[in-house]
Design goal:
Number of strands: 25
Radius of gyration: 23 Å
Distance between the termini: 47 Å
CATH topology of one domain: GMP Synthetase, Chain A, domain 3
CATH superfamily of one domain: ANL, C-terminal domain
Strand content: 25-35%
Strand order of the largest sheet: 2-1-10-9-11-12-13-14-15
CATH class of one domain: Alpha Beta
Number of helices: 18
Helix content: 25-40%
Structural class: alpha/beta
């Protein structure tokens, strides 16, 4: 069961159907898309890449992304998509941990990665090497079992180092089928727009659109630009897109300022962080019933719960506000449980840890049995999120049991930032927490204790962070303190630090 067969079948069913677009320009129909992926698969085979090997994808949203992704699967390899916003050193670590030998890149990410000491062969999609790959002899699609690795997703962990989530062909197929059941159907007349990182939800959602022979729209900017999204939606029509809550809020702000009504937007699936009720109510009032919410994790990609288009837009139900505050009901392949500290089920309405099991749950972390055992308990995924279920099966998240910061829909783990700060010679102690932010959900704040006699300013620490981690992870503010609050065991009391931001922080 190789997902590359989905592209091959779509090309068989409609070889002249429009497939890949750079903005408004069509660059490939399904026949050409499938042929290019088969050629890249053949080229990878010629480089010694075969079933089970890992291939990196460190590039922005552009048509070559999907060609490279499906080319990996044609060869039988697993893709290792890396957020193009990451620092080159971070990407190099991921590629090393994954054991990748080849990584496809685009300008920007390519230069950042090339500036490291990585031993991985870097193939820019604008290079002669990639042009040669597109003209290589096509490969037959490799045989893969349902539980073989398809996508190695790196998500930050509490240790400060990313963990590789093993995502199989079966998991992705089940995710796609669940999308049709729990989110919405897809037809060949539909289109999906990649304005969010393709290393995450936006890229995962390419699968159901390939299966149905729909169009794939890559913005020329390579990322998120509100005016560009509105223009492309008007041009193409029937646009589906994945967006973090902060992206939705920014779209509403720009639309109201410019008089834009979102013509051509069929569906906006939002996830990746808390969506404030006032924001989604305002979004529905302006754009209409185009919003659908999903809740998932890398460990259960896009697939734990869904809040339907009807539930998001409904204002007649007596409990529409509590439902709007929820993340919806369990998706078809998933069984939900609210567990106590030992994972035992709690009664309806009680707050505990959200647990899930089903065919979209990972089998474990890449080469990390200890983390796998801690996260998977008797087949149940322990999400680390706290929540409760009501009588109708709606899940409402109340808090996170971990110190995860979600800023603009992106996960940031404090210890990773703290470890970088502690390498600065002037820093004796550092503690990083999330501070409520009206646009981003949270922003990153670092409490700093300087070494005796040392001096450092915010600019010094900012430059230090930017030399080692991605810009979006660096603290937006630094608070210099004489000491950090700690308990009797020496553990920093982050709750006390957060309380300094005021009530409700």
């Amino acid at each position: 069961m190789n997902l590359a067969h989905w592209l091959h079948r779509a090309a068989e069913a409609g070889p002249t159907r429009p497939a890949l677009f750079n903005g408004t320009e069509q660059v490939a129909d399904y026949g050409a898309f499938a042929a290019q992926a088969a050629a890249v698969g053949g080229w990878l085979r010629a480089q010694g890449i075969g079933p089970g090997d890992r291939v990196g994808l460190f590039l922005k949203s552009r048509p070559e992304y999907l060609v490279a992704l499906f080319g990996c699967w044609v060869a039988g390899a697993a893709a290792v998509p890396i957020n193009a916003k990451l620092h080159g050193r971070e990407a190099a670590w991921i590629l090393s941990d994954a054991g990748a030998r080849i990584c496809f890149t685009s300008p920007g990410p390519h230069e950042g990665l090339a500036g490291t000491d990585t031993a991985v062969s870097l193939i820019s999609v604008e290079s002669a090497d990639f042009a040669a790959a597109l003209n290589a002899g096509p490969a037959m699609i490799a045989d893969r079992a349902p539980d073989d690795l398809a996508w190695l997703f790196y998500t930050s962990g509490t240790t400060g180092r990313p963990k590789g989530v093993i995502i199989t062909h079966r998991m992705l197929a089940t995710m796609a089928f669940s999308y049709f059941t729990d989110v919405e159907p897809v037809t060949p007349e539909d289109a999906t727009l990649y304005a969010a990182p393709m290393s995450h939800g936006a890229g995962l959602y390419s699968l159901m659109h390939v299966l149905k022979g729909a169009r794939h729209i890559h913005p020329p900017s390579g990322g998120f630009d509100e005016a560009e999204i509105f223009e492309l939606a008007r041009h193409h029509g029937r646009i589906q897109m994945f967006a973090a809550p902060t992206m939705v809020k920014r779209m509403v702000q720009v639309a109201k300022a410019t008089g834009e009504k979102g013509a051509g937007l069929r569906s906006i699936i939002y996830a990746g962080g808390p969506m404030y009720q006032a924001d989604i109510i305002e979004a529905v009032e302006h754009f209409g019933p185009v919003f659908i919410q999903i809740y998932g994790q890398g460990e259960c990609p896009m697939g734990i719960t869904a809040l339907s288009r009807h539930d998001v837009a409904d204002r007649a139900h007596p409990r529409w506000l509590p439902r709007l505050a929820s993340v919806g009901r369990a998706q078809a392949p998933i069984e939900l449980r609210i567990g106590d500290a030992n994972g035992n089920p709690l009664p309806m309405g009680e707050v505990g840890e959200v647990m899930a099991r089903g065919d979209t749950v990972m089998p474990g972390y890449w080469q990390n049995p200890a983390a796998s055992a801690a996260t998977l308990a008797g087949g149940w995924l322990r999400t680390g999120d706290m929540g409760s279920l009501d009588a109708d099966g709606y899940l409402t998240l109340s808090d996170r049991s971990k110190d995860l910061i979600i800023s603009g829909g992106t996960n940031i783990y404090p210890r990773e930032v703290e470890e970088v700060l502690l390498t600065h010679p002037a820093v004796a102690e550092a503690s990083v927490v999330g501070r409520p932010h009206p646009e981003w959900g949270e922003d990153v704040v670092a409490f700093i204790v300087l070494a005796d006699g040392a001096t450092a300013c915010k600019a010094d620490l900012d430059a230090h962070c930017l030399s080692q981690i991605a810009r979006f992870k660096r603290p937006k503010d630094y608070v210099f303190v004489s000491d950090l609050p700690k308990n009797n065991y020496g553990k920093v009391l982050k709750t006390e630090l957060r309380s300094r931001f005021g009530e409700g922080a």
